[in-house]
Amino acid sequence: MRTKDYFNILFNPLDLLRTKKILHVNPTAVAVRQEPDEVNLTVFDYDAKSVETKQLADVPSCLPYIDTPKVTWINMDGLRKKDVEQLCSHFGIHFLIIEDILSVGQRPKMDDINGILFCSLSMLFFNDQHSTVETEQISIVLGKNFVISFQEDASRDVFNPLREKLKLNASKIRQNGPDFLFYALIDMIVDNFYVVMEKLGERIEGLEEDIIRNANTRSLAKINMLRKEMIVLKRSVSPVRELINGILRSESDLIDERTEKYFNDVYDHIIQANELAENYRDMMMNLQDLYLSNVNLKTNEVMKVMAVVTCLLAPATVIGGIFGMNFDKLPYIHHQYGFYIAAGLMLIIPVCMIYIFRRRGWF
Hints:
By secondary structure, the chain is of the alpha+beta class. The protein folds into two domains: about 5-295, Beta Polymerase, domain 2 (2-Layer Sandwich), CATH 3.30.460.20; about 300-360, Up-down Bundle (Methane Monooxygenase Hydroxylase, Chain G, domain 1). It is built from ten helices and seven strands. The protein has helices spanning about 5-10, 15-25, 80-90, 95-100, 160-165, 170-175, 180-215, 215-250, 255-325, 340-360, and strands at about 40-45, 50-55, 70-75, 110-115, 115-125, 130-140, 145-150. A seven-stranded mixed β-sheet has the order 2-1-3-7-6-5-4, sandwiched between helices. Strand 5 (about 115-125) and strand 6 (about 130-140) form a beta hairpin. The chain is rod-shaped and about 120 Å long.
């Protein structure tokens, strides 16, 4: 492979853009978000006996659900600054929470402000085409009798199983309060972490087999790409442990004592996810060591062949050099069989050397 092709593989422009996107995050920078053309508002108003589902056209249509005796789940797909501020102001949500909802690249966190419990975390998706881990920031607000979730992209969602459960009268979500819905939303996001990590693990295992069979420069490029995706995964998963722990320690009146055991279960899941992410990171380091070992092994094999060939040619070089000197008196210089004797030695000595090398197991 030419040097130019080698650098094109290792320093692909798209790969460099991916690196810049992953590593260059400035939380103090003003959020630049392209506002969507339309905002989708979905409302689930339910109790143990009934459930009402509506698609609302605008934020003012949500106002009647402020004082409803039922549990209300409002999901906003598409974050338009004006709509987010209007909806949050109607439900008494603090402006600091509004800033976190509208921020870009927010680190997973939770806050308990003015009787409102807020958490922001990342939903993970695996792009099979580019083998990349993609994230979508989601914010969830828990109030006295409502839960509001804010999503950036309506086309990707992990909450559909939850919506189906809301239609069942005997489901636990219908039998419990808004804190259980709050738990269920977070639990869905955490469970999806495992789906993404499973696909990422398949890529790592496949790369390991490729390196064992045939390690090349493309293998090194794939290792670097997967290490970057591990950074995205670790950055999204690791802080969630602190988030769940914060909810358990908040002593908020919004979290019923019966629901705490479910958050403890999510806490256990996120610990396992962190351990799995650490294992994948160790596997990536081992893959890099495996690649370097294979490259060194190939180099040693080449050097061994070259050394053997050099050793085998050494007798012929010495004999030819001696009898090629410009002197009048040399042994067998005028002998009628002198050439045949020299040629025979040039062949017999390398054959003997091959026999000795084989006996010693050098090749």
